[in-house]
Design brief:
single chain, four-stranded antiparallel β-sheet, 8 strands
Length: 136
Amino acid sequence: MAESWLRHEFLAPGMVLLAQGGRSRELYVLQDGQLDVTRDGVHVTVVKTAGAVFGEMSLLLDLPHTATVTAITSVEYFVIENALDVLRTHPELLLQIARLLAQRVNTTTELLTRDRAEEALVLPRRVMTGWGDPAI
């Protein structure tokens, strides 16, 4: 039995799923295809993993979409209409969104700490050029 709040949709290549700065009350879940994510006109990533969710940050924070998501290939996806209401009444979906967001925070933290750790191990160029004998 299909849920009344769940709709199956399609996009042709080049069509926009979400526009940066726009708003919606929906969540989008990739079923099949490839989507390009850009922010401020700069390529961020290509998403092709079934189950990837879009629009959750905008929905949960009540902010405009932070990126534009465009179909690269033909795309099949699900739309969760009135997503806040659905999440309130389906805690298992809310838990999945929470896990997704926790994974993103963990990945971002790892990237930030890795980059900072590498920077901490590099001596400034002015120090390096002040050394006359590299054998020291």
